[in-house]
Amino acid sequence: MATPFSKLIVLLAVLILPALAQAESPPESPETESSFWDDLRWDMSIGVGIDFSHDILAVAEERNLTPFFDVNFSLEYKNFYFDVQRSNLPGGAFLGYQLWQGEDWQLDLVGGTYISGFDENGNLYTKTSGPWLAGITRRDDDFNVGLKIARQFQYVDFSSELVNDVGSAHGAWMWRSVVSKAIPLGNWDMRGGVGIDLYSARLANYYYGVSAGEANAYRPQYQPGTSFGGYVMLVAEYPITEDWVFNGGALLGVASPSIYNSPLTSSAVRSVGYMGVKYVF
Question: Contact 68/53 with Cβ under 8 angstroms?
């Protein structure tokens, strides 16, 4: 079975090789000649702060506040990009290759983890599990690859992604669309947005279904089928000094009744957020 690391290496190879091939092609004229370093752009920061969350899983007790230390990194080379940022709510694609760029539209090949898994001990936000999850089969993180189309309108940005799990999780598709807008407010760098996810029946059944072998007194057999979720989000940054930046973000999401009615969940509403500072190199 392929490990997450090996899957990442394969996807990196798929995305980087076209860019390297393009970089090795001889320039058409002296005017278009550029070095590797001219085309390479990167940004890096390290941050500390507090995560806050309320998940939909049925557990006895959650970790509502959790300290964090993380590294944020973005890299661009020609049409290839790699982006891991805490501000990337609600997560998703962090690898991409620009296939086509028009005046307003852009089409990318993307990859990343869109849904995090859990087991009988819950997930990262679980402090104490309970009988609702005891004995269930582990649900793995997915690793999706697909297409993303994006357009910048006069006042808002739009993106839509259709991806499919190529890892060892559910092997099914999901669709995500987001409309977001930059919010000018003095020295604040803010962006708000709304989004919707559509989950195939196979995906929803994998994460929120209860098989016959898992059914017990606390968990009747259940299959949610095709499901969806919606959310609103806001991320913000404010420069404290030349190198230090305050950053924060929050997401409020609502799951469809088919997910909320699962014996593995106890709420239709989830919230995640963070607040902290980061040092920008």
Answer: no
